[in-house]
Specification:
single chain, mainly alpha, three-stranded mixed β-sheet, two-stranded antiparallel ribbon, 24 helices, 4% strand
């Protein structure tokens, strides 16, 4: 069945809560292993039912944030989902206390019960209403940004459409596009500040009710980080400052020379080449057709996966009015298919979706029937490793998408990935400040972000733009609103993906086998153990970053300079 044909009927929330509660009662009283495992399977099936319906609603709401029906249904889920979170917490407690715990761990591994232990401290009935309020605020941010209508040269653009124009070869056009974009955010700054301020206060309130001084350790536990913490993140950011920031500054200097602008302003940064950034050679239909060819040639598994994505209509790719910004992959657990959401806008980012989000989706497809489902409950740094690595495994096919611009794409893909890492670190350090200082005013937050930004991104020249000079750039980063502390994961995954890129150039079969193994491990092992199991070095270890960078620099130097202008 295609996604558009999936039937949505509002679930009987009270009935499902009662059904799962009754099954949990039985699970806690199980007399033997067989009864325990049988009831556990029924409980999981009930959770998958609610997850499937929630994801259908969430996807359809993302596709059209102006659809009042799905907007209303999503609000209903926000009100009821904390009740299911409570039931999941109860399931974890029963597993930990059960006399069949060792049987469960022997059969399915210990990582699930390790996460159960981690989650013990993150739930209490007293926080249920706060979680509902948090979800509503997140939805408010999505609606505000997704409904943005920004006038540019007599036309109305959404955020994604305007971002495409910021890459224009004409400097005045880039400047005007950014002025329009920043003007919208500046005009909505008070609403964005209020939403975020309320989120920080609610999350801090939740942490206090759970017995924590700040929300930071709560966020780490909720994200399932079993073998690294904020002290690891701090040491990792220090490595970024020492090794990657200097390299990124050299790349920016090379860019300035290449595009002939000695003192680059912020609106010059999206233009990587004087001849224009690499652009894909077709629209959505053509790009999807070429992606199918690519995945069939890459491996039998990827060919089967992408053909199923097309046949079942599990992608909504092009930007349009009312569509939420950004891109993501999610799963429909009963349909047993992943879904890719994005905003194609005619830039190289369109191809990145067909590799990055498809990397997520491919891993989800490989493990679509995994049981228990919690063994597929990935930490984000591993999930993003799947996606970012797929971007590099598909490098040999980029001529299909970029033609004569392929060499420019190869350069820009690596250079942009290196330049991204300091930005990702700045967002992480900013969040540590925010949740350590929950009473800080919006003005103080913006000032702190600008201070952090100057440390990681010293090249930035905002040309006197008041909104940006005062530290407003972070408000465009939706993760700060939707998923606290989920951003450093992208940079960690980028280091892992760089390792696969180097390995793939040296021995494709070895690299691909390792990647498939990592996909299938899914969430069965904590992060550091999973990386070691597949032959990758931990980005947290001293020397990992330093070891990779010369090989990336050598690759950039090896590209045809005559084609990179």
């Amino acid at each position: 069945m295609r996604f558009e044909d999936l039937v949505y009927d509002r679930p009987d929330f009270d009935g499902l809560v009662g059904e799962i509660s009754s099954l949990l009662d039985g699970l806690s009283r199980s007399k033997d292993r067989e009864e325990f495992f049988s009831l556990h399977k029924k409980i999981e099936d009930s959770f998958l039912k609610i997850d499937e319906l929630y994801n259908i609603v969430s996807i359809r709401n993302s596709i059209n944030t102006k659809d009042e029906f799905y907007d209303g249904e999503l609000k209903l889920f926000y009100e009821h989902m904390p009740r299911f979170d409570e039931l999941k917490h109860r399931l974890g407690t029963i597993r930990l206390e059960s006399k069949f715990r060792s049987d469960f761990e022997e059969k399915y591994g210990k990582t699930i019960t390790m996460r159960d232990k981690l989650q013990e401290d993150t739930f209490d009935p007293s926080i249920m209403e706060d979680r509902v309020s948090e979800s509503k605020l997140v939805n408010e941010y999505y609606k505000l940004t997704g409904g943005a209508e920004i006038e540019f040269r007599g036309e109305i653009k959404n955020i994604s459409g305007l971002l495409a124009i910021t890459q224009d070869r004409d400097r005045d056009t880039r400047r005007e596009a950014f002025e329009a974009l920043n003007g919208w955010f500046a005009a909505n700054m008070e609403s964005l500040d209020r939403i975020y301020d309320d989120l920080v206060k609610i999350r801090t309130k939740i942490a206090n009710k759970l017995g924590f001084e700040t929300y930071t350790p709560v966020a780490y536990k909720l994200m399932g980080r079993l073998d690294w913490d904020s002290s690891d993140a701090k040491k990792y950011r220090e490595q970024i400052l020492e090794h990657i920031v200097p390299l990124s500054q050299k790349i920016y200097a090379d860019q300035a020379q290449r595009i002939g602008i000695e003192n680059m302003k912020y609106f010059d940064l999206p233009l990587s080449f004087l001849s224009g950034n690499p652009k894909p050679v077709g629209d959505e239909d053509l790009l999807v057709a070429k992606a199918l060819e690519m995945y069939k040639e890459l491996s039998e598994e990827t060919g089967e996966f992408f053909e199923a994505m097309i046949d079942k209509g599990m992608m909504d790719l092009t930007t349009k009015d009312g569509k939420a910004p950004g891109g993501y992959m999610t799963s429909l657990p009963l349909t047993q298919m992943p879904f890719i959401f994005s905003n194609f806008n005619g830039t190289s980012g369109d191809v990145d979706v067909l590799t990055h989000e498809a990397g997520h989706a491919f891993q989800g497809y490989l493990t679509r029937d995994m049981y228990p489902n919690e063994n597929n409950d990935l930490t984000m740094e591993i999930a993003e490793t799947h996606s970012m690595s797929m971007e590099f495994f598909t490098h040999p096919w980029m001529e299909k998408f970029f033609g004569e611009d392929s060499e420019k794409y190869y350069y820009d893909h690596i250079a942009s990935a290196i330049k991204f890492i300091p930005y990702g670190a700045s967002i992480d350090e900013f969040q540590e400040y925010v949740y350590a200082n929950p009473s800080a005013s919006p003005k103080e937050r913006r000032a702190k972000y600008r201070e952090i930004e100057k440390k990681y991104l010293p090249h930035l020249d905002y040309d006197g733009n008041e909104y940006l000079e005062n530290g407003g750039r972070w408000q465009r980063q939706l993760h700060l609103y939707t998923d606290p502390f989920y951003y450093i994961d992208y940079t960690i995954a980028q280091i892992n993906a760089f390792q696969y890129f180097v390995m793939d150039m040296e021995n494709h079969e070895k690299a691909w086998d390792s990647y498939i193994k990592l996909c299938k491990i899914s969430a069965k092992l904590p992060t550091k153990k999973a990386l070691k199991e597949v032959g990758l070095e931990s980005p947290f270890d001293d020397g990992t970053i330093e070891k990779i960078l010369p090989k990336l620099t050598d690759y950039l130097e090896s590209l045809d300079k005559d084609k990179i202008k």
